[in-house]
Amino acid sequence: MTSAEVANKLPKDFIWGFATASFQIEGSANVDGRGKSIWDDFSKQPGKTMDGRDGDVATDSYRLWKEDIALLAQYGVKSYRFSLSWSRIIPLGGRNDPVNPKGIAFYSNFINALLEHGIIPFVTLYHWDLPQVLHDRYGGWLHKGEIVQDYVRYAKVCFQAFGDRVKHWLTVNEPWCVSILGYGRGVFAPGRSSDRGRSPEGDSSTEPWIVGHSVILSHAYAVKLYREEFKAVQGGQIGITLNGDWAMPYDDSPQNVEAAQHALDVAIGWFADPIYLGHYPGYMKQMLRGRLPEFTPEELNVVKGSSDFYGMNTYTTNLCRDGGDDELQGLVEYTFIRPDGTQLGTQAHCAWLQDYPQGFRHLLNYIWKRYKLPIYVTENGFAVKDEHLKPIEDALQDNDRVNYFKGITASLKAAVLEDGVDVRAYFPWSFLDNFEWADGYITRFGVTYVDYETQQRYPKESAKFLVKWFGDNIDAGDRKSQ
User: Fold this and answer.
1) CB atoms near residue 391 (< 10 Å)
2) 3-state SS, residue 80
3) What does the buried/exposed string (b/e) look like for 447-478 if buried means 16 or more CB atoms within 10 Å of the residue's CB?
């Protein structure tokens, strides 16, 4: 290979693979001693999921895990990002509650099998499935004094059990979603909100900010533990992964340019600024005043610098206009309609997502310049409109998703090779169609089609595209050294 060809490829140690989360795929809710998570009962309440279905079976991956790994190996991924179920490992969740040996054994065997296939385990400790008992005992994430200690103990159990083999840890997946969707909008478990039509209790003006604060501290103290007690021996990396989409001014008026920055401050800066820069964004302090919790000097010392990298989940771009009364998106109005009436891009099945790959490149540059740490893109994907209504053979021809990934991969390559952004990993969401939270099984994000009647898996065109693209665009290097 010529040096020019190498220069036009991602570096040989670039990590790519597919991503999932425990509650979205595992099923087997009552098997082998697993305790309930907040999503178990929530998803069974009428009206909480779009199709009225729950996570009891999902893609049945607790039973079909060997088939899943065989498919990952067939795809030739370098890595697989998956999450651990807290209530499978500690069914009651708390720091003095017993550990479930069968839960440990399941994930231990799973990790071993990945490694036997040459697949790097990329492990999320918390992907939204809080043990129900902790919510019942003290309000879960609302009680900083309790949840931080319980989460750190759970993390410790995982580091002890799996850290000899796991070298890539994510503490929490998308704290914005945990806080805003769980305690602000009330559309995700535990479903708390000021909207009494939706929830008998909750306060959208205070609880999201309290929860976000607890999540940041839980993450930070778990990282402190890892660095002090495990890193020297295990040699892994640990960080958090934050969602957040690119925010583009609706037009070039000063107030809309400012609004786009406010959107970034509230969607991303709320978590990234304390963790990487050591303070909440000024705009959030101005907007929330006394409702934004404060860190003690000791806490801030633990929070600042508590992520080895920037974990990034991103899907779309929003055009931003100043105005509106929605604090949960920073008093900014979002739209996909340009001033000339045209749409930003191809519409996905979910209302919040359109295809605009240029925004991905802009966001990578913004994150790199602002936070100055290597970026691991841990989720990115597209749900094709009405895919759930299509016959399987049509659903497999997922052209809109292929086009999405064509644009994204070109932006990724340009950001790395032309802009000099240090991106180390890319995980499309998702490996499989799965339980898409409040959307039930209607919205499909998988690059692999799942027939829920038979649990058969069928690769979509997007899977084939991605496998080929990464095969063609990562420097092969010396295979023996990998």
Assistant:
1) 7
2) strand
3) bbbbebeebebebbbbbebbbebbeebbeeee
SS3 content of the chain, % helix, strand, coil (to 5): 45, 15, 40
Q: pLDDT at position 22, please?
A: 98
174 belongs to the catalytic site: yes
Nearest to 349 by CA among 307, 323, 312, 315: 315
Residue 324: closest CA among 274, 264, 263, 275: 263
Strand order in the sheet with 246-249: 246-249, 317-322, 332-335
Any residues with CB less than 8 A from the CB of 469 and at least 6 apart, and which? 405, 409
Catalytic choice (26, 333, 379, 436): 379
% of the chain beyond a pLDDT of 70: 98
Q: What is the pLDDT of residues 420-478, one digit of tens each?
A: 999 999 999 999 999 999 999 999 999 999 999 999 999 999 999 999 999 999 999 75
Closest CA to 23 of 305, 440, 381, 373: 440
8 Å CB contact between 106 and 162: no
Identify each DSSP E strand in 113-152 by its residue range: 120-126
Q: Are the C-beta atoms of 238 and 225 separated by less than 8 Å?
A: no
Ramachandran category for residue 423: left, alpha or beta (phi over 0 → left; psi -120 to 50 → alpha)? beta
Task: Tell me how far apart the alpha carbons of residues 86 and 84 are, in angstroms, rounded to a whole number.
Answer: 6
β-sheet bridge partners, residue 15: 425
Angle between helices 101-116 and 144-162 (to 10 degrees): 50
Say if residues 10 and 21 touch (Cβ distance below 8 Å).
no
Q: Return the bridge partners of 423, or none.
A: 375
Contact indicator for 127, 23 with CB cutoff of 8 Å = yes
Of 410, 392, 391, 423, the residue nearest 466 (C-alpha): 410
What's the chain's Rg over C-alpha atoms?
A: 21
Q: Which pLDDT value is given to residue 482?
A: 38
Which letter does DSSP use for residue 99 in this model? P
Residues 9-55 pLDDT 10s: 999 999 999 999 999 999 999 999 999 999 999 999 999 999 999 99
The whole-angstrom separation of Cα 482 and Cα 13 is 8
Q: Which helix (H) or strand (E) holds 247?
A: strand 246-249
What one-character DSSP code corresponds to residue 397? -
Give the helix ranges, DSSP H, for 230-321: 231-234, 254-264, 270-272, 282-288, 297-303
- 175 and 214 in contact (C-beta within 8 Å)? no
Q: Render pLDDT for 124-133 as a digit per residue (tens, 0 to 9).
A: 999 999 999 9
The active-site residue out of 146, 174, 207, 436 is: 174
Q: Which residues of the chain have pLDDT under 70?
A: 1-6, 478-482
